[in-house]
Amino acid sequence: MSTFPLFDGRSYEPTRDGDRLNTQLAAVRHILADGRWRTMTEISRELAAINIYASENSISARIRDLRKSKFGAYDIQRRYIENGLWAYRMEVIS
User: Is 74 helix (H, G, I), strand (E, B) or coil?
Assistant: First the structure.
């Protein structure tokens, strides 16, 4: 697993949350790295297929993390589908 900068926040406890959040972050980054559009539900299913379980709220938080400079400042795009449903993808630079 890659080593990421430390997470932070009032409720963050490194010994309790560090490994879980780093694992989620690396897995979400890996899934989005192919540049395909996916909904949160699709990302959640792909994570579950590799035995990583994360709520859609957690996935959303990891996407926000990936946009932060300390986590790589990835260009994560979103597009509206319908009825409050969004899809996300990472801009792939070749």
Answer: coil
Nearest one of 87, 90, 94 to 42, comparing CA atoms: 87
Structure tokens at 55: 């709520």
HSE, CB side, 13 Å, CA atoms: give it for residue 75. Answer: 5
**Domain containing 86: what range?**
14-90
Q: What CATH number does residue 50 fall under?
A: 1.10.10.10
| pTM of the predicted model as reported, rounded to 2 decimal places | 0.87
Q: How far apart are CA 73 and CA 64, in angstroms?
A: 10
pLDDT in tens, 37-49: 999 999 999 999 9
Give φ, ψ of 46 to 5 degrees.
-65, -40
